[in-house]
Design brief:
The protein is an alpha+beta fold. 17% of the residues lie in helices and 30% in strands. Helix 8 links the parallel strand 8 and strand 9.
């Protein structure tokens, strides 16, 4: 907060995708709905660095790529799911590239790109791929972007545990061009009011985007479900700690 503020923040709804309610709420949910729905939003952040305006794109979601992951492939092909109209399970929006274009941002204008974690992501079209001779096979969609990830996240994808493989796109980072890959450890202050905070738990290398803006401070990360995850001290937020009168509630 002391470093300053981001200049512009804007979000784009990419899709609404199903996620099993039991995964999201575990035993806290006993209703009949088998799914809750993620509103997958990409966040565009603009800030100044060395006097120039820079663009950070966080969590750009490409449904057609994520559907290749083991989890969504199995879900889509399950016999009981096939009896449900797709329109009731998935809502597709305009592609993120088109939405960025509507505000004058081209793929080559993106300076930094990151995801909070790499479940169901296929980075090959985004980063581009090359063969063993170093020749480009697939041109990168974001040719000027530096791709920022926790080292622990990247290494975990390179060494997937078989029980976790279902959450990833097979070969989703195979042969990607690593010239613009930036791996870091811990927390990273990217610019005034813009930081990436290491928040391990969902994955070892999960990180969250933390922003300081004129409207306040915001933390953005996928798989945040319960309100008590964000404001356990607020009455009625759903936090499970005791809240003696006049005292801040305890973390769960």
């Amino acid at each position: 907060m002391e470093s300053g503020k981001a200049e512009t923040v804007r979000q784009f709804l990419c899709s609404m995708a199903p996620y099993p309610s039991t995964f999201a709420f575990n035993n806290a949910y006993s209703g009949l709905n088998k799914f809750m729905f993620f509103n997958n939003r990409a966040t565009l952040v603009q800030f100044r660095k060395d006097g120039e305006v820079k663009n950070l794109l966080f969590n750009p979601f490409f449904p057609e790529l994520s559907e290749k992951s083991g989890f969504y492939w199995r879900l889509k092909n399950a016999s009981w799911v096939k009896s449900i109209p797709e329109a009731l399970l998935v809502k597709r929006m305009r592609g993120i590239v088109d939405q960025l274009g509507s505000v004058g941002i081209r793929p080559e204008d993106i300076d930094y790109l990151s995801y909070d974690h790499l479940h169901v992501q296929d980075l090959r079209p985004l980063m581009g791929t090359q063969n063993r001779q170093g020749n480009t096979v697939l041109k990168p969609l974001f040719p000027n972007a530096s791709f920022l990830f926790q080292r622990a996240e990247w290494e975990s994808v390179l060494n997937l545990h078989p029980q976790n493989a279902i959450w990833y796109v097979k070969d989703g980072i195979k042969d990607v061009i690593e010239d613009n890959l930036l791996l870091y450890e811990g927390d990273l202050l990217l610019a005034p009011g813009v930081s990436l905070i290491h928040t391990p738990g969902h994955t070892a290398g999960n990180h969250s985007l933390y922003l300081n803006t004129d409207a306040g401070t915001f933390t953005i990360s996928e798989n945040g479900v319960g309100p008590d995850c964000y404001s356990p001290e607020l009455p009625g937020s759903g936090g499970c700690g005791r809240r003696p009168r006049g005292r801040v509630g305890k973390w769960c």
